[in-house]
Design brief:
heterodimer; A: mainly alpha; MetI-like fold; 13 helices; 76% helix; globular; B: mainly alpha
Amino acid sequence: MNLKRWLWRLWHINESLRGYVLLLPVLLFMFFMLMVALVTLVVQSFWADTSPGATVQYTLANYSLLLTPQGEIYRALLLRSLWMSLLITVSVILFCYPVAYLLAFHIRRRKIFWLVVITLPFWASYLLRVFSWKVILQHEGVLNSMLMALGFIDQPLDIFLHNRSAVIVTLTHAWAAFAILPIYVSLEKIDRSMLEAASDLGDGFMRRFWRITLPLSMPGVLGAVLLLFIRNVGDYVTPALVGGVSGTMLGNIIVSLFTEMGNEPLAAAVSIAMMVSITLIVCVFVLLIGGRKRLEGVT
Amino acid sequence: MEQSRTPRLVPLILGFYIFVLYAPVLLLPLFSFNDSIYMNFPLKSFTTKWYVSMIEDTSMMKALWASVKIAVISAIVSTILGFLAAKAMTRYQMRGRAVIFGFIMLPLVIPSIILGASLLSFFKQFLDIELTLWTVGSAHVLMSIPFSMLILIARLEGFDRNLEEASYDLSMNAWQTFRRITLPLAMPGVLASILLCFLVSFDEFLKAFFLSGNQPTLPVYMYSLLRFPQFLPAVLALGSCILIVSVVLVSIAEWLRRGQENA
């Protein structure tokens, strides 16, 4: 009886306790589905590749394979995926910055409406959007038939599909909304009087952009850069549909290790290697930015 | 300022972006009415037969039904969980609030393939259960919670906390306050969250690809058809229907989320 009353009083006195209780279902769910799941993947990456039903043996072989000449393909694909993700990220930012700028500074009425219009295609099925790029770029596709109809070429060209640029173009289109929104938000937050002050002090458009607008929009840009870089390293659908051989990425080999080759421990090890590399790169990136900020703060 | 110098270019540039963003998406409905299994110009004659073949494809309808079921259930579950989290985040002083917030947002930031692989290993090796639509649905709940929580935090921060305090002062208990004050005021956010989480789940491919076992969801089924030209028109027809439904749902959700803020 006492315990019940004590709990009752604690419940009413301690506000944060009520908050934690509300969070409990989410945190429990995520603890299992995220943390335990990741730990299971790590554990599985140390399994020896045995037939199902056999007793599990632990080994470092999956990781050491990645370092031997046999594992050359995994290293090459990992480097390629990181590099392509970087290119995709840069391409998305360059594509999206102007339209975010336009929305923030040049459209003064019904901003929200235009923002929704611009980001609406993002909600159309990802799979179908990637597929429609295949339709556009393929041999008998939209781009080739239009170029032929306009008389620029006589024969369909094969240069559009099955290469890295096809992957980059498709993913730039697919991820645009993820960059437009954060960049727009940070541009919108800029105090307009600072821009006017720069103009009054004689800055032209470009100079003002480099000195005021761009630096102040960096929070949105960097947020988008991190999200895009991390999420695109492991993309599967786009390289599978439009990448061809030269556009194959690590995600494709992870999936085929899981499915066709049935080597789940090795697939787990490759996934973990990918995640560790991404995490390291992101940490270095964040440290560099933090370091630069601190330097700027000192001077 | 340069606003006055470039007003004519603005609609032009905006038009260019809208064209580039929309054209690839709008190709699907265009070719779904084209009487040819090849997708290129010039268009052949107009037809609606692909829509008939879409309805007659029983395994496609089965996959559609599976996806709808998963999307409805996971949207409701993730909205309930997201609501609890949003309520805790906005109403209570807690230590480690920022860390908890970051933790709940993690599924947005982790590459899909890592989530898919780790959940596959979790369900098969740790829980040792069969892969069914339930395993797909729980993965969709995981990735919808961040969306739901963000939408509901915005909504709960938007209305006056004193209304809840007043309700307590008028000796309503927590449940009555929730049912008569918090829930009605949060309702537009709740509905927006359900709609957007529905779409997140309905469109999701990679995790369903890993976790769906022998009953495919619609995106997994469509992906398996993409290699066969003769099945493509039916995929395009269904894709066009999905497109229209998605646009309607997002528009309603955005109206609930933003339109009413101004009112």
